[in-house]
Design goal:
The protein has one domain. Helices cover 72% and strands 4% of the residues. It has a two-stranded antiparallel sheet. A two-stranded antiparallel sheet has the order 2-3. It is globular, with a radius of gyration of 20 Å. It starts with a helix and ends in a 9-residue tail after the last helix.
């Protein structure tokens, strides 16, 4: 019972931290950013461990955390594949110029993106592509928000997407390239346990949909970043909207069965 409730508890903590983000500023906001990433990391890695076992959790950490650090260090040192950029000191200690929480963020969203793709398609190439897009599209929210806060800065942020100054368009292609490599490596290393989803994955689907919906709302209303709200809404919709539809359809037959069972019992009114 505790094993099944722990991911939901971590998700609740993450949601509370993210709700607090637009209500704070300065060092408090930076602290909430670090706390959110830490909670997201524990949630995704913990869920992988509890539901798929040690092999999957280790593979996720190796590919997403290890790979995330490697590609970020490469990016800071060479400008490839995201463009030339530098991190400020507001996100905590660095190694090779990379704040240690940054690779945790890759891991946090890589796992729900993968499970979403598994839920939506049985094709392995399709899963790799959809999981990569589902992960990379998150950056349409993330980078404009973090640049606006001064957590990192590009040396030459042009050309940029319309309405998203400060972030070069090539950065998003770099995210997609690494996301494809990440999702391509995850399945062989994690094993067949990641080829299916079940009811235990509810927290991950909730995390992905919460990230989508809350990001649109926060950027459009609280953070005053309407362009990133629009770009992110379009990008993440590729995975988030079909996921929401499939989850709603899965609940509908169960609801129909309950109505039929209730109607069969004398004195039960199901007309409402």
């Amino acid at each position: 019972m505790i094993r099944s409730r722990l991911p939901w508890a971590l998700l609740a903590g993450l949601v509370l931290a993210q709700i607090g983000y637009p209500l704070t500023a300065g060092a408090t906001r930076a602290g909430l950013t670090v706390a959110t990433v830490g909670l997201g990391y524990l949630l995704s890695v913990g869920h992988a461990l509890l539901t798929r076992g040690t092999r999957t959790a280790v593979a996720l950490v190796a590919v997403a955390t290890g790979g995330g650090f490697a590609v970020e260090a490469l990016g800071v040192a060479t400008g490839f594949p995201f463009g030339s950029y530098d991190y400020s000191g507001e996100l905590g200690p660095k190694l090779a110029g990379v704040p240690l929480i940054i690779p945790l963020a890759w891991t946090w969203m890589a796992w729900p993106a993968w499970l979403t793709a598994v839920r939506l398609t049985a094709s392995r190439p399709g899963r790799i592509a959809l999981a990569a897009v589902g992960l990379a599209a998150w950056d349409l929210f993330l980078d404009p928000q973090m640049v606006a806060e001064g957590y990192w800065v590009w040396r030459d942020p042009t050309p940029a997407l319309p309405g998203l100054p400060g972030v070069p368009a090539g950065n998003y292609l770099g995210w997609l390239l690494f996301a494809v490599l990440l999702t391509s490596a995850l399945r062989p290393l994690a094993g067949p346990a990641v080829d299916r989803t079940d009811r235990r994955d509810g927290p991950m689907f909730a995390l992905y949909l919460w990230t989508y919906g809350s990001s649109v709302l926060a950027h459009a209303v609280f953070l005053r970043l309407p362009a990133s709200a629009a770009w992110g809404a379009l990008g993440m919709a590729v995975a988030a909207v079909p996921l929401a539809v499939t989850l709603l359809r899965a609940r509908r037959p169960a609801a129909d069965r309950r109505e039929v069972d209730a109607a069969a019992r004398p004195g039960v009114d199901v007309s409402a």
